[in-house]
Hints:
- It is a single chain.
- The protein has one domain.
- The mean pLDDT is 93.
- By secondary structure, the chain is mainly α.
- 75% of the residues lie in helices and 0% in strands.
- The two termini are 23 Å apart.
- It has 5 helices and no strands.
Amino acid sequence: MRHTKGISKKMRELSNQAYERELRKELENLAGKFTLWQENELGIWDLEEAIHQFHNGAARELYKRYTMLSPELVLPYALYKNIIAYEELPKEIADEIKMRTALYRNN
């Protein structure tokens, strides 16, 4: 569906916000591993493995999701996963995006 430039811009901004929110959550989990390592509750090799898992797992998946998919596909996912709130969506497209969350309910 075609949107005005303003709506398209807002959708890109929301998609970027969703990316940042998910990445922040994953980085906070990784930061917790660093804290455990600093407190000698996690070995250096376990920390190295956690970094490796983050890089090859969560970081890569998020990058692919948010850079390869259009906001029209990302926003329904982000809404379904409660990464963004319905109230954050532009009112002109909120119902359309909410309707598209069905794509993710069935998977």
